[in-house]
Design goal:
By secondary structure, this protein is mainly alpha-helical. The chain is built from seven helices and no strands.
Length: about 180
Amino acid sequence: MSPSTLVRLHWVLAWLMPSAHAEALLGDLLEERRLRQQAESPASATRWYWMQLASSLLVLLWTSLQRGSWFITIATAVASFIAAVGIQLVLQSALMTTSKSVQAVIVPLSFAATLAACGYVAASIRLGAARLLAFLVFAASCAMLAISTRAPLWYDWSLLVLGPVATIAGAALSGRLRRVRL
């Protein structure tokens, strides 16, 4: 098993575990793996390790779902995303009568302000929701960039970067982002 695979697996486990127990449990798992590699064949130690990970993932996933932390975070991020899209659609429809040059300035600024406000609210409601919101904004911007060819490329790329950055900036303003564990 490559070291990078091991790091990724431990990151997933640490994300699913309660933070108070993650370091000790992962340390024990690594120590046991190291001891088994010395006493047994590498294939046997790797097989044992994968069995431990598989059984741990199921239990940790179930526990995490029971705590409800995923549902609340996802619901908060999705609701914030829907609110941001709704606000942006209302603003764009209000700007339909203005010139294209005014729209080229106002739309990105209102886009950034809307996402910053939604990021602020999302982070205030649930830790981690602002990061998920930033990911949703990035994914939606990528999808729009792939589908649409109406706007200049610089404009699309600026929204691709501006959206997630504004969301994280709004979350940072709430003061809670720095307490979110990666």
